[in-house]
Amino acid sequence: MRLLVTGGAGFIGSNFVHHVVEHTDHHVTVLDKLTYAGNRASLDGLPEDRVAFVQGDIADAAVVDTLVADADAVVHYAAESHNDNSLDDPRPFLDTNIIGTYTLLEAARRHDVRFHHISTDEVYGDLELDDPERFTEKTPYNPSSPYSSTKAGSDLLVRAWVRSFGVRATISNCSNNYGPYQHIEKFIPRQITNVIRGIRPKLYGKGENVRDWIHADDHSSAVLTILEKGEIGQTYLIGADGEQNNKDVVELILELMGQPRDAYDHVADRPGHDLRYAIDSTRLRTELGWQPKYRDFRSGLAATIEWYRDNEAWWAPAKDATEAFYASKGQ
Ligand code: NAD
Ligand code: DAU
After folding, report:
1. Is ligand 1 within 6 A of the CB of residue 15?
2. Global pTM value
């Protein structure tokens, strides 16, 4: 297959491109705007005869039309992805997540190209800490932030384009990813690179918020499974039973990096901060036979710490500006 992967220079998109090259014969064309979150170096070392790179905007109809016409399937990762940024300036989230997705869907419709839309568990809002239920494909949408509301909007566009125009699309909603190539604005790599730089990790509020961690490589294998076996028009939730509260994660990072477990600061909480996400991925496992490979968070986190230690040249250029942004908000 010829895959068009949008956002393939970002965190999860680049992990997906590496996974596809390693596990399939597919050819990949990456379409990425290279915003502050995109990094061409995340695709270094991949064979040129398997991976092509185009710098461009998913909201640019002319570029998108040419690339979609030439693809067998689109795997759509590109997005503005960071909640804290969406609270600061929501506009780019509307432009990319809504208009960009619309632009891609129109091209997929024109050329009858298979479309897989990457989305997030945040579209379902949040859960109480003691809620025995987890998110399923039937949970009503209830997004909290400008980021998650634009992702919810983009999911609904995909559903409408399937029903109204017969676009051959599937959607997946995944929980929090960790692993290599994640921008250091995000929780886990921010704390790892803080420790490397001698800065104390920063925990929002009390740190009792729960995220359901999955390794990015398991997200990639799930997406490939849905692309190959998923039923058109359906949504699949992706998760690996990885619930952890933020306090435990910070303490584990400190322990794995040889620091006292309490060597962190509590800082200003995120406005509207979702309390807990938790995914029930039964459908993906039973209907499509997918299973996660990374079941031990401690060893997955230790390998991620090693990656950031070994790849300082990849993240160092963004560190000062990222910390200056957080400092301006008391975080
Ligand atoms: P990221 O911010 O690391 O990467 C986003 C990529 O998209 C970057 O390479 C950026 O340059 C590119 N991009 C942004 N705007 C663009 C535009 N207008 N045109 C073309 N390219 C553009 O994000 P990520 O964490 O890798 O997330 C990827 C996708 O996965 C997003 O759709 C996100 O909603 C979803 N998701 C993320 C997580 C997570 O834990 N990070 C979990 C579930 C779902
Ligand atoms: O659930 C999937 C979502 O996970 C994706 O849709 C988003 O694209 C992705 O960014 C992520 O969203 P979160 O807001 O959960 O991730 P973030 O890494 O920003 O924060 C994770 C948790 O850690 C959250 O409860 C806020 C907290 N936090 C974050 C930072 C940056 C801290 O306590 N300290 C920090 O410095």
Report:
1. no
2. 0.99
